[in-house]
Amino acid sequence: MYSDLHHSDPVLAALLVNSLREEEGRLNLIASENYASQAVLAAQGCPLSSKYAEGYPGRRYYNGCAAIDEIEALARTRARELFGAEHANVQPHSGTQANMAAYYALVDPGATILGMDLRQGGHLSHGHPANFSGRTYKIVSYGLDRETERIDYDAVQKLAEEHRPALVVAGASSYPRAIDFGRFAEIAKSVGAFFLADIAHVAGLVAARLHPDPTPVADVVTFTTHKTMRGPRGAVVLSRTMHAKGVDRAVFPGVQGGPMLHEIAAKAVCFHEASQETFRLYQRSVVANAAALADSLAAEGFRLVTGGTDNHLLLIDLSKSDVALTGKQAATLLEEAGIVCNKNVIPFDTRPPDVTSGIRLGTPAATARGFGSEEMRAVGRAIAGILRAPDDEDVKKRVRQQVHDWCAAFPLGVERRPTAPSSRKVFQA
Ligand SMILES: Cc1ncc(COP(=O)(O)O)c(C=O)c1O
């Protein structure tokens, strides 16, 4: 692999090989990451990356786009069919740019947007003051019920009535429960607002009908293709026909220049893969694995935000578990043992975001490697062992060895046919 690169740039080639070895030898539990298939990677690495094609199929500002038009048209058709959407724009380079384009398409600068608070599970692009969203719009944030740690829909309704937003945004980065998009749509409608569902995290589950689908009830849906979708880095905006022109204009020339054709080709591959039964089985395993990890950690005495998970991720509340660690300390200790995750604020956290009282764990990447529920339960026990004995080098060494054995048993880059997970009820559309 990379033989040309070894020849032309040995320094970078060595760094790349190192980083791949590092990834190969660790257990990735970062909820927003995944491993794309070899077919997706092949499309991403193709020479289309150099082609300029500002505009859309049939309406380009550059010549020589006939074959490229077919690729983008195919990606759009597959995205529409996968989610049952009326229109798809497959050009956004990232989830944040997809959201930016969606806002531009739906509301004017200065408009009021009602979105989920980052500290309660939302995303930067849903109105954080340091983000374009918080700087361009008047943001009203909603959050969770203190008791249940679930979205307080009645409170969202009240905020909507009080502030009369032009746009309501639903979707989250660290919310372990299913989101009731139907309720959000009703709230938006009741105050005459547009409704945007950002399913960056759960898109793969939605495509597999394992999470409620916002497409029939939202004006616009955005999602990233590199998280649960297992595709290339990038994003998509789905919309109703009435918003199609506005969305297309907002993506280009609104917030982007030339599209990344290699990523669009890889998105087409991703949507094809996501339409297969194997993808649905993979997503069922992702959800079952998250449930197994949650059960195992709860049995070890850790408190999970909301008590568990409906989707691909979970949050450990370290402040109410029997360990004296911050999220930052816990994530560092786990990394030393070969388990990679991220520190994360928990609802109503009193610690700052660079310290936190929680860690977020997700199963998409480990499941793509082939980990099953039995392994995930053992992973839960290993995490508990590390966090309970932070100074015990023997425990760390044992877990490192176990991670090494798992990684050898489930190498990266091997396409597996997932089998249906046996246990656990999951949401069925
Ligand atoms: C809910 C949500 N929306 C948008 C994004 C932004 O995606 P990107 O990092 O590609 O800009 C994320 C990323 O984590 C996310 O979780």
Pairing-aware structural class of the strands and helices? alpha/beta
The number of strands is: 15
Radius of gyration, CA atoms, in whole angstroms: 22 Å
**Could you please say which CATH topology of the largest domain applies here?**
Aspartate Aminotransferase, domain 2
Report the sheet with the most strands, covering strand number, pairing sense and barrel closure: 7 strands, mixed
Bound ligands, each once? pyridoxal-5'-phosphate
Tell me which CATH architecture of the largest domain applies here: 3-Layer(aba) Sandwich
Folded structure, characterized:
The strands form four sheets. The chain has a seven-stranded mixed sheet, with helices on both faces. The radius of gyration is 22 Å and the shape is globular. The protein is built from 16 helices and 15 strands. The longest helix is centred in the C-terminal third of the chain and has 23 residues, at 277-299. Residues 423-429 have low confidence and may be disordered. By secondary structure, the protein is of the alpha/beta class. A hairpin with an 8-residue loop joins β11 and β12. The protein has two domains: 42-274, Aspartate Aminotransferase, domain 2; 285-409, Aspartate Aminotransferase, domain 1 (Alpha-Beta Complex). α5 (95-106) crosses α10 (241-255). It has helices at 3-8, 10-24, 38-44, 66-83, 95-106, 132-136, 153-163, 181-190, 203-207, 241-255, 261-274, 277-299, 327-336, 364-369, 373-388, 393-409; strands at 27-28, 55-56, 59-60, 87-89, 112-116, 138-142, 167-170, 194-198, 220-224, 235-239, 303-304, 313-317, 339-340, 342-344, 358-362. Bound molecules: pyridoxal-5'-phosphate (PLP). Pyridoxal-5'-phosphate (PLP) is lined by residues 32, 94-96, 99, 123, 125, 171-173, 198, 200-201, 224, 235.
